[in-house]
Amino acid sequence: MPTSDKQKRTLRRVLPAAGAVLALGLSGCGAGGTGPNSDDDALTVLVEGGGRAELTPIADAFTAETGTSVTFVELPYDSLYERLNTELSGGDVSFDVAAVDAIWLSAFGPGMVPLDDMFTDAVQDDLFPSLVQEAQVDGHYVGMPAWTNAEVLYYRTDLFSDPAQQAAFRAEYGRELTPPTTWDEYLDVAEFFTQDTDGDGSTDLYGTDVKGAVETEWLSLVLQAGAEGMVLDTDGNVIVNDAEHKAALDAYVAPVEAGIAPAGATQMDWATAQNLFNQGQLAMTRFWAHAYTQIPEDSPVHGNVGVTTMPAGPGGPAAVPGAWYLSVPQATTNQDKAEEFIQFVFDHNELGLDTDLGLAATIPALEAGEADGRENLGALIAALDAPGTAPRPATDKWQEIVDSVLIPMLQEATAGGADTQALLDRAAEQIEAVVG
């Protein structure tokens, strides 16, 4: 299945680290840069495809209210990164506002205008703590969250409500068939729903999937295991091979080891897993919350999908936020108008709910959407509000760590039969070399 721009937004592309390149050019990246516009009646906003969809209704309202036109420059995910890296390094930018993926903030934050005055107590009260934390680089707020995402649990309501399935589960496991709330329950339910539904002798329904080609889901399990950070602790020390990371990796690959996930886990990515679930081949999947409203009407599971938070581990419920932030480059000459636009996006955040992605960043906006019947937003709120939820490490080496260490490790682990502690020990050595 081709990967859409919406799906690219949640994928982590193979990108070079920005820190070293950016550091060379920031000394010339002051307020005196040329910028794209010389008047207050126009703004240029650099975005990825999903960002344009999210921001368009808000931009239209901004133009109607202020008379300032907003021009979007839309780029693919990897090209957006490259444009930001090149222009911020050179100190001469072609945009006034940029939509920045959370994992880029540490690299690009030093070239952005501090937005500290925007982060009032009232503003922070309307944001999830993990997003407030993530917005800070070197003690300054360098981006305002515009929309956010997190993984939740999708499950087939037609299967869970089937009296025959309920009776069979009760007989086998001695309890009622309900959406799982713990890792152990998750494995039991996944095992139960791995079935030959048409009686031809082959499994055609699996309990869940295992994604070896992406890292964020495993990182969520790391938090659920009770780890004091993901891969790195708050002081930058490598902790990827501690007991919590091992427990998370063991739990992550358990469906592969038990034969209750489809073959090909090493290459399973977001798009593949989403397709399997929408085709009716999975009873459950852990996936980004936005996908709930994107299940095709001709899908065999359409109208038969429930959504709740991911099952909790020993450390309780937790998720990894997938937020995008709006930032202002120091080199723009339209700083005041750019900040006015960002404040407008925050104040009218609920307009982003009426888009294909259907996401927002503020708690009031998401709560309003939940009240309108968007079941996925209730699960998203609960995931982002969980005490264990935390942003990814604030390091400009993060993308390099993911691409060169975490993904290869997960692919080896999901092949089956691996010594997970040995994999994590090797990963720790590799990450030490990356971070120095």
TrEMBL record:
Keyword Signal: yes
PROSITE patterns: PROKAR_LIPOPROTEIN
Pfam family, one: SBP_bac_1
Gene3D superfamilies: Periplasmic binding protein-like II
Alphabetical UniProt keywords: Signal, Transport
InterPro entries: Bact_solute-bd_prot1, SBP
Signal peptide coordinates: 1-31
Source organism, top-level taxon: Bacteria
Family label: Belongs to the bacterial solute-binding protein 1 family.
Name the record gives this protein: Sugar ABC transporter substrate-binding protein
